Amino acid sequence: MKQIGKILAGVLVAVLLLTGIKNEYARLLPVSSYGMQAAIKKKSVDHLFIGSSMFRQGLSIDVLEEALKGNVYILSYNGNQPAFMAMELEYMLREGLEIGTLYVDLYPYTAAATPWISDTKILLDTDLGFKLDAWRLMNEYNDTKLLDFYELFVTANNEQILTYPIHNRLVSAQFRSGGNILTPGGQTKEHLDSLGMLGGRDGLQEAQIEGYKKILELAREHGIKVYFIETPKYERMYQDSDYMELYEACRNKVEELTELINSEVILAQELTFDFGDPACFQDLIHLSTEGRTLYTELLCERLEVEE
Amino acid sequence: MASNIMLTLLFLGVVLVVHYLAPPRDRWKLLLTASLIFYASASLWMLLLTGVSACWSWFAGGRIEEVHTEKGKRGWLLFGILPLLGVLFVFKYFNFFSASVASVLALTGLPAAPLVLKLMLPLGISYYTFKMISYLADIYLGKRGSEPHVGYYLTYVLFFPQILSGPIERSESFLEQLHRGVYYEGGLFAEGIQRILLGLFKKMVIANRLGGYVDTVFASPGEYPGLAAVMAAFFYSFQLYCDFSGYSDIAIGMGNLLGIRSRQNFRCPYFARNIRDFWNRWHISLSSWLRDYVYIPLGGSRVSQVKRGRNVLLTFLASGLWHGDNWTFVMWGGIHGVWNLFSRKKGVEAAGTVRRIWQTLVTFLGITLGWVFFRAESLPAAVSYLRRAVLGFSLSMADIQNSILPFTGDNTCAAYFLTVCLFLLLLFLYEWGQVYGKGKDQEFSLSGGWMVVMGMSVALFGVFGASGFLYAQF
Q1: Which of residues 189-228 of B touch A (CB under 8 A)?
Q2: Do the domain assignments include residue B293?
Q3: Are the beta carbons of B205 and B457 closer than 8 angstroms?
Q4: Which of B183, B211, B242 marks a domain boundary?
Q5: Whether residues B28 and B175 fall in one domain
Q6: What's the pLDDT tens digit per position in B351-395?
Q7: ipTM of the assembly?
Q8: Are residues B110 and B220 in the same domain?
């Protein structure tokens, strides 16, 4: 029994040590071609796009690199929320990243979500201090449980770390400068019409609006020009009252904020994009390769006009 | 509490402290109280039903022993068992029976809406009913006397570590231990910890990790490549094994910590070299129960070939039905029954390494095929699943990618897939050691190295969110 007790105690100590090391130092693993660490490694980015999978699937890195002057980087995490985008921006600036122009994802559903880290890659890219701040934020707005804490601090990303040499190579091959280089095809109208809508939410979340504000404040502090960008959604989304209610609220709020600080909003509907072309969409909210290329070209034209 | 293993373990921790503070002779009282609390935490009326069933079977057991005529004994045996089976039938099989009768009537042109009872299945009903039946049958067969102490008997039926998913412990060894008094034994306590660790590894690290993938692909196999259907079938084999044997290990381990010894319920079943060998290794407490109380009473193998075939088939059909109220389980039992009939008796005797590996692989493949019926929602769903697995199978790069994707649905799927493979390899190495290596002829034990590996795996790779047990639904 004594020996078993010693072994179990040893296991506990080892687990605590490994967990501590992971949370502080996993960010130092060889850099991938996406995420915050890859951006920080560049030291300076002329055009930084920060957002959710809307940006991952909705922006073509090929078109951006060709059309915009200077280097481009797309920082996208699944379901990335404004509150965390602000923290990510702050973290990267603190780590010494210089940013010329910042493009922020304007996706109403993330602005309506209660703060939660929806992509654990964020945890893999940051230090313990970031994680503790993120936990405090989540704790403030959610009824968090011990299991949530355990999953975020102890078990999150262990699979990726265990298989890092293979996993990182496989996933990094899908990105260049944070931009997705996979080429997903479009859908048929029948398929897109058969998909269920994403439903309503309980309005915008205070923490997310604070996130937008903080992004603007950081941008002002560091002299960064900011654009809020909405990627196109399939036409059914713009006919959905639940979505449009959120959309209007989010747009009004962000426009209100941009009046205070030098920044601009570019909505998808301002561009001559065909929202009803099923070939341009993978689903109701994500663009296909064709849609991504067309939209990014239109966006760059618009940005050139701005300049 | 009953549906969450971590809460159950916490509850065990509290029980343990009080348990060993009480004098050995009185510890059964604590075990009974803890079991009552545990069961009541799920539902009070379930506890009432189970308590009444247990008291009835205890009473009937006493009568079987008291009467002196064969006719009287048999009468009390039937009188004791029939209400138990009746309760089991009403709660577990009535709706299935009613729907099946309605389907048959519909085929003959007589439309009849099935009568549906909306009843919640009492926790562990299949397990404790079989425990009570074996108790009564053993008294009738003269294998044991009736238990004079109703408290001991209730402790046996309701013993909380085993009420949820077994093992179906026989009364003789359990009650004998209570009569002797429950004592602390260092060796048994250590074995209990090791068993719980092994069980948590199987359940939390492997079964829970595979559950999401299996559920996703089985829910809509048509949306995934044939390769995904093949992978999900194999993964389900491992999920089911790790879930159920993991729970058995935890349940036996919890009993060990409380000073109760139990028989092993699994012995590395996927190392079986034929179907008979498999049933000597899989859910041993159920297969031996069916052998002793169904197969042998039917005549066993000491009858003509035709009757032996009938007995085997009936036993396996009963095994299928025990698992649930669906034709898929009957089909699964039928497949195993027919396969068993054609399996050679001495197939597991001496053979070279290559032949041994071949036999093991073929057996595993057949068992996996059977699990598809076991897992599917209906017989047509099982057939369509198998069609998808065969006709949609290819090893193109796109199909490989799309077959791994259901693990997480995003770009972390490869990491999850590789991690699953790694843990299955670890389990294979551990069990290989148990079957062919150092552990072959030894009592159960986990070496220090394995304890470190499994302990760290549970802590760092355990999937704690999904904590239900597959076999608890049976």
Answers
A1: 189-190, 193-194
A2: no
A3: yes
A4: B183
A5: yes
A6: 788 999 999 999 999 999 999 999 999 999 999 999 999 999 999
A7: 0.88
A8: no
Region class of B409: left (phi > 0), else alpha (psi between -120 and 50), else beta = left
Total of domains in chain B: 2
B308 falls within a domain:
no
B122 and B151 inside one domain: yes
Q: A78 in contact with B at a CB cutoff of 8 Å?
A: yes
In angstroms and rounded to an integer, the radius of gyration of the C-alpha atoms of chain B is: 23
Structure tokens that stand for A283 in this block: 């689903």
Residue owning tokens 């309701």: B158
The per-residue pLDDT for B445 is 78
H-type helices in B141-225, by residue range?
A: 150-158, 160-163, 171-180, 186-200, 208-219
Residues B437 and B377 occupy one common structural domain: yes
Residue ranges of chain A whose pLDDT lies below 70? 306-307
pLDDT higher than threshold 90 for residue B121: no
Specify if B131 maps to a domain. yes
Q: Are residues B122 and B265 in the same domain?
A: no
B290 located within any domain = no
- Tens digit of each residue's pLDDT (9 = 90 or more) over B307-325: 999 999 999 999 999 998 8
B390: containing domain: 188-273+351-473
B464: nearest CB among A7, A150, A162: A150
Q: Which of B32, B84, B30, B94 is nearest to B60 (CA)?
A: B84
User: Which residue do the tokens 């099935």 mark?
Assistant: B114
**Residue of A3, A4, A160 with shortest CB distance to B412:** A160
What angle separates helix B171-180 from helix B125-140, to the nearest 10 degrees?
80
Residue range B26-77, pLDDT digits in tens = 899 999 999 999 999 988 999 999 999 999 999 999 999 999 899 999 999 9
To which residue do tokens 């039905």 refer?
A: B321
Q: Which residues of A touch B193 (CB under 8 A)?
A: 4, 8
| CA nearest to A53 within chain B | B410
Torsion of CA B53, B55, B60, B62, to 10 degrees: 160
Contacts across the A-B interface (CB distance below 8 Å): 77
B window 404-433, beta carbon within 8 A of A:
410-412, 414-416, 418-419, 422
Looking at the fold, whether B140 and B258 belong to one and the same domain comes out as: no
- Whether the CB of A10 is below 8 Å from some CB of chain B: the reply is yes
Residue B349 has pLDDT above 80, yes or no: no
The phi, psi pair for A43, rounded to 5°, reads: 70, -40
- Tell me the per-residue pLDDT of B244-271, one tens digit each, with 9 for 90 and over: 999 999 999 999 999 999 999 999 999 9
Poorest-pLDDT segment among B19-23, B61-65, B105-109: B105-109
B9 & B111 share domain? yes
Nearest CA in chain B to A166: B415
Where residue B472 falls among pLDDT bands split at 50, 70, 90?
low
What kind of architecture, by CATH, is found in domain A30-118+171-306? 3-Layer(aba) Sandwich (3.40)
**Residue B108 contacts A, CB cutoff 8 Å:** no
Answer with the one of B127, B156, B183 that is the final residue of a domain.
B183
Tell me the pLDDT tens digit for each residue of A28-85: 998 889 999 999 999 999 999 999 999 999 999 999 999 999 999 999 999 999 999 9
Q: Hey, are the CB atoms on B459 and A15 less than 8 Å from each other?
A: yes
Contact call for A15 and B461, based on CB within 8 A: no
Tell me whether strands A179-180 and A175-176 are parallel, antiparallel or unpaired: antiparallel
User: In terms of Cα–Cα distance, which of A198, A183, A191 is closest to A291?
Assistant: A183
> What's the pLDDT at B348?
64
For residue B449 the two structure tokens come to 């190295």
Q: Looking at the annotation, which residues of B are catalytic?
A: 323
**Are B422 and A7 inside 8 Å of each other by CB?**
no
| Residues of chain B positioned with their CB less than 8 A from the CB of A160 | 412, 415
Looking at the structure, tell me whether residues B263 and B157 fall in a common domain.
Answer: no
What is the spatial distance between Cα A215 and Cα A86, in angstroms, rounded to a whole number? Answer: 5
* Residue A12 contacts B, CB cutoff 8 Å: yes
